[in-house]
Design brief:
By secondary structure, the protein is α+β, with helices and mostly antiparallel strands. The chain is 42% helix and 31% strand. The chain is built from 5 helices and 7 strands, in the order αβββααββαββα. Strands 1, 2, 3, 4, 5, 6 and 7 form a 7-stranded antiparallel beta sheet that branches. A hairpin with a 3-residue loop joins strand 2 and strand 3. Helix 1 packs across helix 3.
Length: 200
Amino acid sequence: MEEKLTPLQLDALREAGNIGAGNAAMALSSMVKAKIMVHVPKALILPLDLVSELAGGPETVVVGVYLRVSGEVNGRMLLLLPEPSALQLINMMLPEEPTEQLSELARSGLQEVGSILTGSYLNALENLTGLTLRPSVPAFARDMAGAVIDLILVELGEADDEVLVIETTFDLAGLAVSGHLVFFPDAGSLDTILGHLGVK
């Protein structure tokens, strides 16, 4: 599905991702008092039914931080991490309190990471498109990837059959963890975003 987008469209989506990543890196570095780099190696459009494959398949246990997006564009935003990656990320950020399970502190930390990352990306997209994009308070989920995605789709109702995926890598002191930021647009919202980027 990525081939449906022109190089100009991909560049515009990556630009939004990189601006958001830069802002998120500053906020996360301030939060943990250490330099965290956030990179966006890839932005693409995927068919809805392939989203769970990003985490290893529908039965892979994942951690998701998700929120509603409302305004001139509506949808859901999800930070999707396989559970081992989520634990690695929280241990990178909170090395003084290492954990091998998703404690209340770990869940809270991951929710904050998800809130910062999704908020930074939406702000960047808002600035580039001129659209109003209002995020809600994020929610936390731990379940099989298919179940987490189904939960979002039930909440969303009428959805596009394609999603916007921003591959995201967190880097702290040479340790890297990768996840995916996924925007599930309601019907027509993806066209609206691309149109306001001037690349529809």
